[in-house]
Design a protein that fits this description.
The structure holds two protein chains of two kinds. Chain A is an alpha/beta fold. In chain A, about 35% of the residues lie in helices and about 30% in strands. Chain A has a seven-stranded mixed β-sheet, sandwiched between helices. In chain A, a hairpin with a 2-residue loop joins strand 14 (about 310-320) and strand 15. In chain A, helix 4 crosses helix 5 (about 130-145). Chain B is mainly α. Chain B is about 80% helix and about 0% strand. Classes of the chains: A alpha/beta, B mainly alpha. The complex binds adenosine-5'-triphosphate (ATP) and magnesium ion.
Chain lengths: ~350, ~220
């Protein structure tokens, strides 16, 4: 597995490491016939953090998240929830534990025969709370998710985003220590996705709630996660603070998942590149963290006038850290070495992708 | 139609409604749990037990494959044991209920099976046990189908109760055969047909209205 530094390089470092693990998985395996849905997963989630688990379809994400509340039983390995191994528990021992773990789903899974407030109050009914207390708590939660006026409506009359808000309110009803989200925004349009993610982030801050969210979209991880784990073929192939994984992805899976969200060399340029060193050299330049705040290209231009041109790229800000990725061209190959040296001296990661022999 | 025949018609209506209502109620009370058991014990169900599932399935199929008129006669000893006699309206309720229960169980089973598995998963994830799942998910979510299926069962029972005339159960079917057919009282025949149409339409209308009221699915 590719391990990055696990936290932002700022003051939160010490704080984060002192926080206890809410979830730890130790070498968890789960097979379905010959497919290994989980092939030795070890992972931990600290109190109050948002961990994003990303992977392609069939990577084992749902199986992993379902192991955390005992909906799925691992063949081997340990699943510790607040330090307690749940793998040996019976169904009836798991039930009280599940009440302290909220879960939201891609298709919302609201009960159509119950009103919005009845849906939100259901976990409390299961807990045995009296009706008045349940409805009062449901009202509080609907207020939190901004749906108070829909309390008496039935789910079928709500939009997707509203349904997921109800799902979130329901998941929070029993004051869980952990919230599990299985593709909770995959059925929503981008704008609604953004609103739901913002809500989750707010709740995470307001309630210091630990959130483990599964997704196949890097965008989701980028927007709210503190840490990301990339899963492929039932294994965690890369893990670390989101900004650092985005800045320096190491596994092929991560790189390809990042394709849609990081600047890519435009296809028409990529296609005309050869490894034959004639013409314009095309470079990728990656820089992240405090180093990326410096006026790199202005300095390069001052040091080596007219040595390069910008082709494509930009600076993203993830977890308040700048993450820069640029593609530049060096038209005169004789100046390539000095450009490379300069950039490396500024701790950028530079790669010569090829040469474009066409006249610029 | 003479006043005597009119009285007879009223009595037959009452007998038909009694047979249909009583056996319908029994089939609801016994058939719904049986339908739940069929769904719960099946593969991937909330109380998976394939042996019980197969056994229940075989019993249900066994009863459903015997034509009602044969069941009616074959069950005479059972009827005598339960009601004390094998003749009359009350005696007809036993075979009617026994025939309708597996019939209704299958109808309920279909509706229960259609309940989205995601909903069961959601309630399991919030710490619900099997009983919670039945009470909060399976039955309420399948209720529109359960009610619609009950309407169908009642209408079928009205038809079947006509055959119960063979064991002296009375009812509209019996009246139509004895007076309308055997004694050429065409008026009686027409009256019976009209009354049956009204009853069936009434039940269907009530059932449909109830379903519309309780159905909150999209
Ligand atoms: N109940 C099951 N029976 C058999 N195979 C299963 C079962 N559940 C999962 N699998 C298999 O395990 C692998 C991982 O499945 P899982 O649902 O965890 O993937 P996922 O990452 O959630 O995918 P998606 O993004 O499509 O939801 C897949 O190959 C899947 O076919
Ligand atoms: Mg999945």
């Amino acid at each position: 597995m590719n391990s990055h530094t696990n936290v932002a390089p700022i003051a939160t470092l010490r704080d984060a490491q002192e926080r206890p693990d809410v979830v730890s998985l130790i070498d968890v395996r789960r097979h379905f016939g010959k497919t290994a849905a989980l092939d030795g997963v070890s992972l931990s989630v600290r109190k109050g953090e948002i961990l994003g688990i990303i992977g392609r379809s069939g990577a084992g994400k749902s199986t992993l998240i379902r192991c955390l509340n005992g909906l799925e039983r691992p063949d081997s390995g340990q699943v510790l929830i607040e330090g307690r191994d749940i793998t040996g528990l019976s169904e009836s021992q798991l039930q009280p534990l599940r009440r302290k773990i909220g879960m939201i789903f891609q298709h919302f899974n609201l009960l159509s025969a119950k009103t919005v407030e009845e849906n939100v109050a259901l976990p409390l009914k299961i807990e045995g709370l009296p009706k008045a207390a349940r409805l009062q708590r449901a009202a509080e939660l609907l207020d939190l998710v901004g749906l108070s006026e829909k309390a008496r409506a039935y789910p079928s009359s709500l939009s997707g985003g509203q349904k997921q808000r109800v799902g979130i309110a329901r998941a929070l009803a029993a004051r869980p220590a952990l919230l599990l989200s299985d593709e909770a925004t995959s059925a929503l349009d981008p704008e609604t996705t953004h609103a739901i993610l913002t809500l989750l982030k707010d709740i995470n801050k307001k309630l210091d709630l630990t959130i483990l969210l599964i997704t196949h979209e890097m965008e989701v991880v980028r927007n709210i996660a503190d840490r990301v784990a990339v899963i492929d073929g039932g294994r965690i192939v890369e893990e670390g603070a989101v900004w650092s994984v985005f800045a320096d992805p190491r596994s092929e899976t991560t790189k390809s998942l990042l394709n849609t969200i990081r600047p890519q060399l435009p296809d028409h340029i990529g296609q005309s590149l050869t490894q034959n060193p004639v013409g314009e050299a095309v470079l990728s330049v990656d820089l992240a963290g405090p180093d990326a705040n410096a006026p790199l290209f202005a300095d390069l231009s001052a040091a080596l006038p007219h040595a390069f041109r910008l082709i494509h790229g930009g600076i993203d800000h993830i977890q308040e850290q700048p993450v820069a990725r640029f593609f530049i061209g060096v038209p005169d190959p004789s100046r390539l070495d000095s450009v490379l040296q300069f950039l490396k001296g500024r701790s950028a990661r530079v790669e010569v992708l090829g040469y474009d022999a066409r006249p610029v | 139609m003479t006043p005597v025949l009119f009285d007879l018609l009223l009595r037959s209506i009452w007998e038909t409604l009694l047979m249909t209502g009583a056996s319908g109620l029994i089939s609801l009370i016994a058939g719904l749990p049986l339908g739940l058991a069929l769904v719960a014990t099946d593969r991937g169900g909330i109380a998976e037990n394939l042996w019980i599932s197969r056994l229940l399935g075989a019993i249900v199929n066994g009863f459903r494959s015997v034509p009602f008129i044969i069941l009616l006669v074959a069950l005479i000893p059972v009827t005598r044991l339960i009601v004390g006699t094998a003749l009359g309206t009350w005696a007809a309720i036993v075979p009617l209920a026994i025939a309708a229960t597996p019939y209704y169980a299958r109808i309920a089973e279909v509706s229960l099976r259609e309940v989205d598995r995601g909903l069961i998963e959601a309630v399991r994830a919030m710490g619900g046990n099997r009983w919670t799942i039945i009470r909060e998910v399976l039955v309420p979510e399948a209720l529109p189908g359960i009610v619609a299926g009950f309407t169908v069962t009642l209408v079928t029972l009205i038809g079947a109760s006509a055959m119960a005339g063979a064991i002296g159960a009375g009812g509209l079917g019996d009246l139509a055969i004895r007076y309308g057919y055997q004694r050429f009282e065409t008026g009686v025949m027409i009256a019976v047909v009209i009354v049956l149409i009204v009853i069936v339409c009434g039940i269907q209308w009530l059932g449909d209205r109830l379903v519309a009221r309780i159905d909150h699915r999209a």
